[in-house]
Design a protein that fits this description.
The complex is a heterodimer. Chain A is mainly β. Chain A is 9% helix and 55% strand. The longest helix of chain A has 15 residues. By secondary structure, chain B is of the alpha/beta class. Chain B has five helices and five strands; from the N terminus they run αβαβααβαββ. The chains are: A mainly beta, B alpha/beta. At the A-B interface, strand 2, strand 3, strand 4 and strand 5 of A face helix 2 and helix 4 of B.
């Protein structure tokens, strides 16, 4: 077990020894943290880790510090580490770190590393003790892309505008940029889905993000909308270190989410839809060997070839429900559908399945006490998007139906 | 029926009878208390809901609102049901969501009404809730409507 994991377990177990713990108060600095260890198993294929053989490479841990340096001025940060197969490997990173000036209810300001507003649950997707299920629905919250939409360096204007009897309007306006680490899940995902040898660089810049939530007058009902527009710089090596590279002249990149959630007593139902609209001129720098292969023209010479990639996605959504039966037990379920709108028409049903993932999930959450939860979860999957065949194998017809089982234990304080 | 089963049934009946005589705190029994220096003299139920949901963080004079709660009690459940429209679990998750995203602070938590009243009396901007029968001389009482 890695040293950082032992260190975090020690911190959390020490916290659990103290009864009714809410936070560790280090003077005026409030501290909270969590550690979460899981296990993944699939009956076929590998998903997120070497799951066909069963994998414990599935954990998260974090600790945050907050303090008020003046009446309306707060500073805080959260250190975070996770492991998911080959991603993360328990490397400690800054999850968020910002100063917040809360001038009025209707206007405040944040600067630093701020959480990216996307849907209802992106800002806390790293902390599964805040929801029923282990995995958020992948149609909107793709696990591979988590580190790409976690946070951004920049600024945020936020506020809660009272609408009187019409409820409250919460808003966030963000601008900034983020550089995606080369060992991230996002990079591995792009390489896998696009069959690319290596992604050399991805920078997400000129991010303009807006998120609004309407807390309606109907108790328990809230609606949300997010729109993000951003620039994207990418460079890929198509095949080995041959110099056959791809760069992108980005024209459009948008994330749009629609969200609805209704809470009635112990029942919570939610639905979200996500669209990723993108257009870019893909400039391929190809040599004599690869120009004929990749252009489909046997006579194509070494040259720069520009292909316009214009993809709109509009079929990614989920619906979910959860119910708390007792202080101990909460059950949840969701149906999630994702389709990758590739501009390459699939020739076979197997190729079509590689662009889709349908996930029916059933979760059980056990709150042992305020600081300790256990979750068990099963997923019936149809589709192969983001999925790897087992070592030494390739996908065959009929492989699109498979199961994922997950268990997780989380301590928090 | 065996003697053991009979005894178990008797115990179950007694416990059931006892529960019928235990009156859970009703909504009418809960009143809102605030620090005496807070200028606001009236709060609607909607205001209390917004405050305890984290949507309203300032008093009318722009001083910060300091939230207090009583831990795991019938009073807490009754307060949440009547004013915040959340179960205790949902309330806790909402504040943990705010705290772990850096956007909020977990409310100050107390085990007894006396501790809460004492804190609200001594801390500017503090708000809490008590049973109507509780002594509240040191704080301002508001009947939210």
């Amino acid at each position: 077990m890695k040293k950082i994991t032992l260190f975090m377990i020690t911190i959390c177990m020490s916290a659990l020894i103290v009864s009714n713990i809410q936070a560790a108060d280090l003077g005026n600095i409030e501290t909270h943290g969590f550690i979460s260890q899981g296990y993944l198993q699939t009956d076929k294929h590998d998903y997120l880790a070497d799951t066909k053989d069963g994998s414990y490479q599935f954990n998260e841990m974090g600790i945050n510090f907050n303090t008020f340096v003046a009446d309306d001025l707060k500073v805080g940060l959260q250190l975070y580490a996770r492991d998911m197969g080959e991603v993360g490997n328990d490397e400690v990173v800054l999850n968020w770190a910002f100063a917040e000036y809360n001038w009025r209810d209707w206007m405040g300001f944040r600067a630093g590393l701020v959480k990216f507003a996307l849907g209802f649950y992106n800002d806390t997707r790293d902390m599964d003790m805040l929801r029923t299920s282990i995995f958020l629905p992948s149609s909107v919250y793709n696990e591979w892309l988590r580190d790409g939409v976690n946070s951004m360096k920049g600024y945020e204007l936020f506020g809660n505008i009272s609408l009187g009897s019409a409820g409250t309007l919460k808003y966030q306006l963000q601008t900034g940029e983020t550089q995606i680490p080369l060992d991230s899940g996002t990079i591995k995902f792009i390489e896998q889905v696009n069959n690319v040898y290596r992604v050399n660089e991805i920078v997400v810049n000129k991010i303009y993000n807006s998120a609004v939530q309407w807390i309606t007058p109907l108790d328990g009902l809230r609606l949300g909308f997010c729109y993000a527009k951003f620039g994207l710089t990418q460079e890929w090596d198509l095949v080995t270190d041959s110099g056959n590279e791809v760069s992108f002249d980005n024209k459009k990149n948008e994330y749009i989410t629609y969200s609805i959630e209704y809470t009635w007593n112990n029942l919570v139902v939610a639905a979200e839809k996500w669209a990723n609209n993108r257009e870019a001129d893909m400039v391929m720098h190809l040599d004599d060997t690869w120009a004929p292969i990749l252009t489909g023209n046997p006579a194509a010479p070494a040259n720069d070839y520009t292909v316009n990639k214009d993809n709109d996605s509009d079929t990614n959504y989920y619906v979910s429900a959860s119910y708390r039966f007792t202080d101990l037990l909460e059950l949840g379920t969701y149906y999630s559908f994702y389709e990758n709108n590739s501009d390459l028409e699939p020739d076979t049903e197997l190729e079509e399945q590689k662009n889709e993932l349908t996930d029916i999930c059933l979760s059980a959450r056990f709150d042992i006490n305020d600081n300790w939860i256990i979750k068990l979860e099963g997923h019936k999957m149809e589709g192969l998007f983001g999925v790897q065949p087992e070592d030494g194998k390739t996908f065959e017809d009929g492989d699109e139906d498979w199961y994922l089982y997950a268990a997780k234990m989380t301590f928090s304080f | 029926m065996t003697l053991k089963k009979t005894k178990l049934w008797i115990i179950a009946v007694i416990v059931g009878i006892l529960f019928t005589f235990i009156n859970p705190v009703s909504a009418e029994d809960v009143v809102i208390i605030i620090n005496s220096d807070v200028p606001d003299t009236a709060l609607s139920k909607e205001d209390v809901k917004k405050i305890y949901s984290g949507h309203k963080t300032k008093w009318s004079n722009n001083d910060s609102i300091v939230l207090t709660v009583i831990q795991k009690s019938e009073l807490h459940k009754a307060f949440l049901k009547e004013f915040v429209k959340k179960t205790p679990s949902q309330f806790k998750m909402n504040w943990k969501h705010l705290m772990f995203s850096g956007k909020g602070k977990i409310p100050k938590t107390f085990n007894t009404i006396e501790q809460m009243v004492d804190y609200v009396a001594k801390n500017e901007g503090a708000i809490g809730y008590v049973a109507a029968s509780s002594p509240t001389d040191s704080v301002k009482v508001i009947k939210a409507k």
